[in-house]
Inverse folding.
């Protein structure tokens, strides 16, 4: 499929480029040969909370172009933007079709939205890969409302969970704020064995997000996760949220994740960005992802490799032995979760899941980590 017909080029003048983006769509659509990462926008807001909005994509690209590649040689193309279709379904189809092509070419897309429901189309882009995937979402709200039947930016997770064929293995939610979240919704998340963590849990140590992000194939970020003081150009502004520095750190974690194959940044509203600082933060978040991408270590554990330290911890109460792996390259940790050994099981690659030193410490005190239990119950 030729994806060029989905995109529109920049119609206004661009700033001088330092070379971070090698190819920019102004006249001819970029050649995707020898490209690692592409950046593009999606101008679709009809399913947002306010049912309105517009993406001035060139404004964001103009904040990226002056940034420098420091310590890496980028191979990045800008594809312009996808204009909203005649119907919302047309916009979803365009985004998922574009991702299908890019993922098969082993090109990592960075999507700048658009409302957060576009995450559904991002997810559907994986459908033809014939593998299960993990999704992580950074958002102040958990966009799952079983009582709401109309698809929109506040309940699209239900459509992902119920999608057929079902290729979602795990969903992790980072940074929800309790006063926005009814207990019934958390009960529903528990029943599906999904991970969810409050904002305050990460405020104590942002590095706690790293194992969650490292397990994901796709990342979806709602700008509402960022506190209003650092990001004004959003629809659901709140005085609390992640800081600019914390968001950039999480984006670097995402870039360093060997499995991360698409990133969506949703909810930016140009109409509320009078000083351009929100667009500047988006640009720096993207830069941090790119820098992490070119610092990947490809250190997923191998049982036969000497590049890992192995630890075996016996839980006294259950007599369950949990195996841990620590990379000598990066000091990152994984833990092994057993599952029924059957030929051709589609969950085989999920037997080793990322974890932290905290998880290992918990096991040495006879406490089984929550994420180990959740994964174990999924596999059984």
């Amino acid at each position: 499929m030729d994806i060029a017909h989905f995109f529109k080029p920049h119609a206004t003048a661009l700033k001088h480029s330092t070379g971070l983006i090698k190819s920019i769509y102004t006249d001819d659509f970029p050649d995707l040969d020898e490209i690692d990462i592409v950046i593009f926008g999606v101008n679709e807001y009809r399913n947002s909370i306010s049912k309105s909005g517009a993406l001035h994509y060139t404004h964001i690209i103009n904040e990226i172009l002056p940034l420098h590649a420091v310590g890496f040689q980028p191979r990045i193309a800008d594809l312009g933007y996808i204009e909203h279709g005649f119907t919302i379904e047309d916009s979803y189809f365009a985004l998922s079709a574009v991702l299908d092509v890019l993922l098969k070419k082993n090109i990592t897309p960075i999507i700048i939205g658009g409302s957060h429901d576009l995450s559904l189309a991002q997810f559907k882009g994986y459908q033809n890969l014939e593998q299960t995937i993990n999704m992580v979402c950074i958002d102040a709200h958990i966009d799952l409302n079983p009582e709401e039947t109309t698809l929109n930016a506040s309940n699209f997770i239900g459509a992902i969970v119920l999608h057929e064929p079902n290729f979602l293995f795990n969903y992790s939610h980072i940074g929800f704020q309790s006063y926005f979240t009814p207990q019934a919704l958390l009960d529903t998340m528990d029943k599906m064995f999904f991970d969810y963590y409050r904002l305050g849990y990460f405020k104590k140590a942002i590095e706690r997000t790293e194992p969650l992000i490292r397990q994901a194939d796709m990342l979806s970020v709602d700008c509402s996760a960022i506190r209003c003081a650092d990001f004004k150009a959003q629809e659901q502004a709140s005085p609390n949220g992640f800081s600019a520095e914390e968001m950039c750190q999480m984006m670097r974690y995402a870039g360093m994740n060997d499995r991360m194959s698409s990133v969506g940044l949703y909810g930016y509203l140009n109409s509320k960005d009078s000083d351009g600082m929100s667009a500047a933060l988006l640009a720096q978040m993207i830069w941090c992802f790119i820098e992490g991408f070119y610092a990947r270590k490809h250190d997923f554990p191998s049982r036969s490799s000497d590049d890992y330290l192995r630890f075996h911890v016996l839980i006294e109460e259950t007599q369950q032995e949990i195996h841990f792996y620590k990379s000598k390259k990066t000091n990152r940790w994984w833990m092994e979760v057993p599952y029924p050994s059957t030929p051709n099981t589609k969950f085989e690659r999920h037997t080793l899941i990322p974890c932290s030193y905290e998880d290992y410490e918990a096991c040495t005190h006879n406490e089984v980590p929550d994420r180990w239990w959740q994964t174990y119950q999924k596999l059984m």
Summary: The CA atoms of residues 59 and 279 lie 7 Å apart. The radius of gyration is 20 Å.
